[in-house]
Each structure stands twice: as structure tokens, then as C-alpha cells.
Design goal:
InterPro entries: HAD-like_sf, HAD-SF_hydro_IIIA, HAD_sf, Heptose_bisP_phosphatase, Histidinol-phos, PNK3P. By secondary structure, the protein is α/β, with parallel strands linked by helices. Helices cover 29% and strands 17% of the residues. The chain contains 5 helices and 6 strands. The protein has helices at 33-42, 54-57, 63-79, 106-114, 130-139, and strands at residues 3-6, 46-52, 86-90, 124-127, 142-146, 157-160. Strand 4, helix 5 and strand 5 form a beta-alpha-beta unit. The longest helix has 17 residues, at 63-79. It is globular. The two termini are 14 Å apart. The model has no long low-confidence stretch (mean pLDDT 95).
Length: 170
């Protein structure tokens, strides 16, 4: 199975400075994110969201707030007939030293454990942060950085100006 691993905040929905997240109750979808997800789904990719949520353990949001925003996002996507296979999040603070916070590979490794038929060679990671690109590098898979480059000029790593540009590569 080929999987499109999507970052959440700043890629699918609006991202905010850490302190502003405390007051966020509803996801705001970024331009072209719904249509791009729909097109990726229609091209035969399973979609898994991989999201750092250090905001939880750093005290900016509660676990319940994270789940509420994610549930609202998933509901809205389902209304557009977009199927999200799964969502993996890392709640750990940036200094906890866990193996799941991006660019560590823990969330994708957990996805592979749960879905052993994932073919990493046919899959990709996309996000708006350098850690998303570095995760792709660490997994030796195709990666797309929206507005972010990579310090290495590795093959299969692409810099995009916007999310919908990924459709030209898949």
C-alpha cells in the first residue's frame, strides 16, 4: 500500500504561534488542502496524518482540545468524501527526548507496525517544516517541503511553493 503521510498544522489546517493555540476551538483549512487531499486519495494513496503536538505536554493545549480539533477536521474531510486512514500524534515536549517527535521516525514506524503492508518506497511525506523534510530523509522516502528546503541535496526531496504542487510529482 502506498501512503501519503501529511503533516497537520500548517499543511492541512492553519498553524498558529504556540501561545495562540490555547484559544483555538475549530480547525481552519488552508487554501487547496481539501482539494489536494481529495486528489491524492483519488490517485490511490492512503492518507495518514503525522503531527507533532508538543503543545500538549508543554501546556499550551489539553489532550482533549487536540482530539476535539482533530475530530472536527476529520469530520469536515469526511463530508468531502476524503478518507483518512489514521492519525498519529506526538504529545511530547521538545525536550523529552522521545523517538516519535519529528524528525524522529517513531510515528511512521508505529504506522508500519499497525499497517505492515505500507510500502515506503511508494509513499511520501509532506509538510511545511524542515522536520517534515528531515523525517522523509530519515525514512529514506520521497519528501516534500512546502516553503522549506533541505540542507542536503538528496534525491527524492522536493521544495514546493504550495500544497497543490505535490500533485505534479505523484
Amino acid at each position: 500500500m502506498k501512503v501519503a503521510f501529511f503533516d497537520r498544522d500548517g499543511t492541512i489546517i492553519e498553524d498558529y504561534p504556540d501561545h495562540k493555540w490555547t484559544d483555538i476551538k475549530n480547525p481552519v483549512f488552508l487554501a487547496d488542502s481539501v482539494q489536494t487531499l481529495k486528489s491524492v486519495d483519488q490517485r490511490g494513496y492512503e492518507i495518514i496524518i503525522i503531527t507533532n503536538q508538543y503543545l500538549i505536554n508543554e501546556g499550551f493545549i489539553s489532550l482533549e482540545q487536540y482530539h476535539d480539533i482533530t475530530a472536527k477536521m476529520l469530520y469536515e474531510l469526511s463530508c468531502h468524501k476524503i478518507k483518512i486512514l489514521d492519525v498519529f500524534h506526538c504529545p511530547h515536549s521538545r525536550d523529552e527526548g522521545c523517538d516519535c517527535i519529528k524528525p524522529q521516525t517513531g510515528m511512521i514506524m508505529n504506522a508500519i507496525l499497525k499497517y505492515p503492508n505500507i510500502n515506503i518506497d511508494q509513499s511520501f511525506m509532506i509538510g511545511d517544516s524542515i522536520v517534515d523534510v528531515e523525517l522523509a530523509i530519515n525514512m529514506k522516502m520521497k519528501g516534500f517541503g512546502i516553503g522549506v528546503g533541505s540542507s542536503s541535496n538528496m534525491k527524492n526531496i522536493y521544495v514546493l511553493d504550495n500544497l497543490k504542487e505535490v500533485l505534479a510529482y505523484i
